[in-house]
Write a structure and sequence with these properties.
Layout lengths: L2 H9 L3 H33 L8 H52 L4 H13 L1 H29 L1 H48 L1 H6 L3 H53 L5 H28 L1 H13 L21 E8 L9 E8 L4 E6 L5 H8 L7 E6 L2 E2 L5 H6 L1 E5 L9 H6 L7 H10 L3 H6 L17 H15 L3 E5 L7 H15 L3 E5 L3 H5 L3 E6 L2 E6 L1 H6 L3 H7 L10
Parallel strand pairs: 3-8, 3-9, 6-7, 7-8
Antiparallel strand pairs: 1-2, 1-4, 4-5, 9-10
Length: 579
Amino acid sequence: MSANARLLRWSLRARWRMAELVALSVAVTATYAAQGLLLAVVVDDVVEGAGLGGSVPALTGLVAVQAVRAAAQWRREVAAAGAAAAVKEAVRADLYAQLLRLGPADVRRRRTGAVQSTLVDGVEALDAYVGRFLPQAVAALVGAAAIAGFLLALDPVVGAVVPACALAVPLVPQLSQRILARRTDPWMAAYHALYAENLDAIQGMATLKVFGAARRRGWELTEKAKDFCRVSIRLCAITVLYVGVVGLAVGFGTAFAAGLGAVRHAEGAIPALSLLMILLLTRECFRPLRDLQNAFHAGYPALSAATGIFEILDADPPVTSPARPWVPATRSLALDFEAVTFTYPGRAGPAVRDLTLRVGAGEHVAVVGRSGAGKTTLIGLLLRWFDPQHGTVLLGGTPVADWDLEELRRQVAVVSQDTYLFHRSVRDNLTIARPHATAAQLRDALAAANAAGFVDALPDGLDTVVGERGMKLSGGERQRLSIARALLADAPVLVLDEATSSVDSANERAIAEALRRAATGRTTLTIAHRLSTVRAADRIVVLDRGAITESGRHDELLARPGAFARLVAAGTTPEETPS
């Protein structure tokens, strides 16, 4: 399906507003046609010696036409804004829902700036297409055809010439669309790239400053801006040429019709009044088509912007919920990985290789290993950010592929080393896990995470806005809020991914104790972090290159001259990076 057809389908979601827009545009065209007819009558009266006295009704009509046009144009602008806003809202809702379906595994492979510019500027580019071009396309067809029909009734010869010339105006955009596409698509791609590069530089500003690379990066961005400028100039050159061709067609058609009408009048074929009507209505016949050309010029970037929108909407989600999902009957859920193998796209070797691991209901299992061993991949497989190429992941004895995705993820609370807090209040960040949590439940979760003290000290307590990504808080404070959020979720499965990596040593013992209490009665999977938490696990599993090399209790593994003992001898359980 073409971009035009898909954009039209979106516009039909605001069909009544679009219908109002078309009606108002036709009304505006009708007022211009009426103005031409009334002016012809006034001029004819003056030429025939009737004077202005006999033209009072026509002059009164002219005033009324101006008032009607002004009201219609005002209402059209309001309706255009409303229709465009409704369509943009629907498109953004579709995009957001699709991004949620695609999940983090897909979104991470895209540049944040490119996605952001599509969600914001790409959707905004639909404004002129929906609010101006689509309604004007219908109005131009109706208005020009009606006026051409009237001219045909006045004089068949002139009436045949005007539509022939008028057809050239809408044909020019069709002929130039392929040329414009070759310029507009690179322009939009360059815009997305420039947006992404600037966002990347802003987010990494501290790093650029620390390494003295800010000025060098600024020069690079300047060169990219110059490239974008050159692409924009090439697009403008094509656009100006296209506008000139349309203007030439309109001017030629008007002049030719006027000249032919004059010849017909000289031959006595038409009276003076008909000639005046031809002279004035020919211009009005081309007016809606000229407005269509302007609307096409303003709305054309939407076709290129739609490419980025459709790229997201047409992407296949890596995982989907089954048609008949399994419904859990108990909160006591065991976790099983059965002969699981998973390879990230573009990677040479598997992140997890033929792995079999069972975490019994209520059991606490810690997974340790060097960076890249595949530990964090287990979390992605459990949450179904992606599915394994071989083997099965089960929760509660049922393959996770048979669970409804939202229900599956409600069963799992995650505390990650990469804590993400939204630019909202502490309360809002906590209630993401439980929207209707009571004040007592919030206090209990904060106390258990050793976060109540610092939250009380914030300027507005629970209502304090934490800033973008929680930057108004320290790393340890952000981590404790993340722990409180997981505790508030009260899910039967708890995943701790470097949960105390950002916690200061003064609070580590208290938080470790809180996490042990939280793990009681829950199926708990801990990705190795500080040794104290690993020691508390019922069982420790050592991963190496995606495969299990050792498994046992802490003391048992230390007594062996194996991989775990070597990790401990090297210091503590090593830090994990996403693998």
